[in-house]
Amino acid sequence: MGFIVFIIMGGVIGWLASLVMKRDAQMGIFWNIVVGIAGSFIGNGMFAFFGGGSIGDISDIGALVAAFIGAVILLGAANLIQRGRVR
User: Which residues are listed as membrane-spanning (predicted)?
Assistant: First the structure.
């Protein structure tokens, strides 16, 4: 059951990050899930380095915020690579 919740939360976080970065029209549900999960690892890894965040813990609001920030960073890096600028 935890894996399904992880997939759903990854999709929601990826979708929210794609809205913020104005890439929603270019991404489907699959890429939203991928971005959300990868962003979770990036964001929570960065915050764990500073003493907070835990990967996959949906009961921790800080972990969800860290996952969202990681997904935005990931999409920003993708924008830099594809277009040479961040939107």
Answer: 6-22, 29-49, 61-81
Give the total number of structural domains in the chain: 1
Does residue 75 surpass a pLDDT of 70? yes
Structural domain of residue 11, as residue ranges? 2-83
pTM confidence score: 0.80
**Segment 15-65, tens digit of pLDDT:** 999 888 887 667 788 888 898 889 888 888 888 777 665 555 556 788 888
The DSSP-derived string for the chain is: -HHHHHHHHHHHHHHHHHHHTT-GGG--HHHHHHHHHHHHHHHHHHHHHTT---TT-TT-HHHHHHHHHHHHHHHHHHHHHHHSS--
